[in-house]
Every structure is written in C-alpha cells, then in structure tokens.
Write a structure and sequence with these properties.
By secondary structure, the chain is of the alpha+beta class. It contains three helices and 19 strands. The chain has a six-stranded mixed β-sheet with strand order 1-2-10-4-7-6. A five-stranded antiparallel β-sheet has the order 11-19-18-14-15, with no helix packed on it. Strands 3-9-8-5 form a four-stranded mixed β-sheet, with no helix packed on it.
C-alpha cells in the first residue's frame, strides 16, 4: 500500500495502479480507471465496492443477456454478475449513498473470467499512509522523550558518574557519561542527531576493540563498563577523537 500511494502521488491519479487485494481480488483505483470485468457463462463474477457504502441504484446496458444481483459481504456491498452467453459486451453503472458512481465494462468470454474485482480510493490510501507515518514519527519521538525518565532507574545514588571525557571536538564530546546496572550511558550533544555518529572503541591492554552500542534518544548505550573508551569520527587528518576514562570508586 505504501509503495502504491507514493507512486500515485508521483505519477498523478490517472496513473494509479491496479493492485491485488488481500482476498485475491483485482483492485482497481476508484475514479482513475474504468474497469473491464471479464465474465463467462456458467461462472459468477463478483464486484466488491468500498466498505461502508450502500448501493442506491444499478443501471445495466443489456439487462436481457446479463444478470446482475446486489448482495453484501459484511460491510462491503457487492454485485454478482453472470452473462447468459459468450461474446457479448455491455456497460454497468452503480451509484452509492457515499456519492460514488462506478463505471464498468462487462465482457463475456467463452473460457476466461475474473472471479472477484474490488476498488480502492487512491486519495484515501495516501491519507492513511501519511497518517500512519505521522503516528509512527510521534511514537518514536515520545519514546525518545521518555528515554531519560526510564533509564536506567530511579535511584540516582546507584549511578556511577565517575567518567572523564578529554580531548577531541566539542561536537562529539559527551554531555555526560555514567554507568548503571552493568551498562554505560553516553549522552551525546543534541546536534549530533543530524550528523554522522562516531564509532566507539574500548581500550584493552593497549589495543582498540570496536564496541557495539544502541541508541535511545540522545544516549549511546554500551553493554558493560569499559575502563577506557575512544569516540572516533572521521579518518586521516580529519579524525576527531574523544577519550573517556572511568575512574574506579
């Protein structure tokens, strides 16, 4: 759905895509196409309209050789279509209480048919995807905002603030560093959210070892409590390094 909505916005409503629905139906974009419904004698074709609307009128071009019956599937109004012979063609117009008018061309073949077609509203799909993106963004921001409040605990006396940051550039120098419950929390400057993150190395017996960390809000969370760490950003002459030392209590 998300990809289809982006394509529709980029290409315009006249180029909306035909999709495959979760129920196996061929989904046509409402208002952006006039579907051709392929039917066959001795087989039923079902047209499912959009959820929540009610059929108010059905107009069939050839009501002698085509049979159309209104029905419903839960909240979806449906039409059951059956031709009496092959190699015939007509048109069908359906009006609903939602103000929608569906135009369809019915074609009868001797040996091929589409069992189920349905419709989707491209504009509504875009609005749904955009709304979900906004909600996801707000949820992510809320999670980031509450990170400090929930991390790492309520007892500040149990936190170890015995860290010193030295050298390097101020743009990657931590605001504070502390440890609690077997983890080291490195709070980085807010401006770093829109810049490249530095790598973190621990120093063990004079050798640098790359440290895995995860990010929550402004915090880089490292498993364990290394005695010495380096934050490294860039390479060569442009390398920025901040040393973090842990002082034993």
């Amino acid at each position: 759905m998300k990809e289809a909505s982006f394509n529709w916005e980029a290409a315009g409503e006249k180029n909306a895509e035909t999709l495959t629905g979760d129920d196996g139906s061929v989904e046509y974009p409402y208002g952006a196409s006039q579907p051709v419904v392929a039917c066959s004698p001795l087989h039923l074709c079902v047209v499912k309209l959009q959820e929540g609307e009610t059929i108010s009128n059905v107009a069939l071009g050839d009501s002698v050789r085509w049979k159309v019956q209104a029905a419903s599937a839960g909240k979806f109004p449906t039409l059951v279509i059956k031709p009496t012979r092959s190699d015939i063609k007509t048109n069908l117009t359906v009006m609903t209480d939602a103000g929608r008018i569906y135009y369809m061309t019915l074609v009868s073949y001797s040996n091929k048919w589409v069992p189920l077609i349905s419709f989707y509203d491209p504009q509504k799909m875009v609005e749904t995807v955009n709304h979900k993106s906004i909600l996801d963004s707000k949820a992510a921001q809320a999670e980031a905002d509450k990170t400090v409040a929930t991390m790492p605990g309520e007892d500040i006396t149990a936190m170890d603030f015995g860290f010193v940051s030295m050298g390097g550039s101020s743009d990657i120098k931590p605001v504070r560093v502390f440890a609690s419950a077997g983890h080291t929390y490195i709070q980085m400057p807010d401006a770093l959210k829109t810049k490249d993150a530095p790598a973190i190395f621990s120093l063990v017996n004079g050798e640098q070892q790359l440290v895995n960390f995860r990010v929550k809000g402004d915090y880089y969370i490292v498993d364990g409590v290394p005695e010495k760490m380096n934050l490294v950003l860039g390479a060569g002459n442009n390398t920025k390094i901040v040393n973090i030392l842990h002082k034993q209590k």
